[in-house]
Design a protein that fits this description.
single chain, about 160 residues, alpha/beta, Double Stranded RNA Binding Domain, Arc Repressor Mutant, subunit A, two-stranded parallel sheet, 6 strands
Length: about 160
Amino acid sequence: MLVTAALPTRLGVLRAYVQDGALVGLFFPEHRPQPPSWTLDAVERPATASDFTAVHRQLEAYLAGRRRCFELSLAWRGTEFQRAVWQALQAIPYGHTVTYGELAVAVGRPRAVRAVGSANGHNPLSIVVPCHRVLGAGGALTGYAGGLERKAALLALERGG
């Protein structure tokens, strides 16, 4: 069964989705693009439900600067190409950034920068799968489903400021 809860954090409320013990979605309220249609099938639970304890605890530790990586069971809902991009995102070290072009090279599709950007934008696991570590050409702060202010805050957190 797919369950959901609203988790309050320092960056605002995040809507978490868990199925069979695995995190399948983590979205900001004004997430763009909109969360996928499968989120509509979720059953509401309180944020304190056991399904969400580890997610909430690890998010809070990360946002407080006490955690650099997540140790959560994840389940990917996307195409093979999207999953390849999302896995490549997890290889970007804490505090580092890459460009969309560099990410395209990392997934073996150097000419598919726009497709990589689209897959990055459809990452269903905000923060946990660090799509915020991807920048535009020349290091430009571009596109983040939770808004550029949150992206800047996440990058500043990881840079120690």
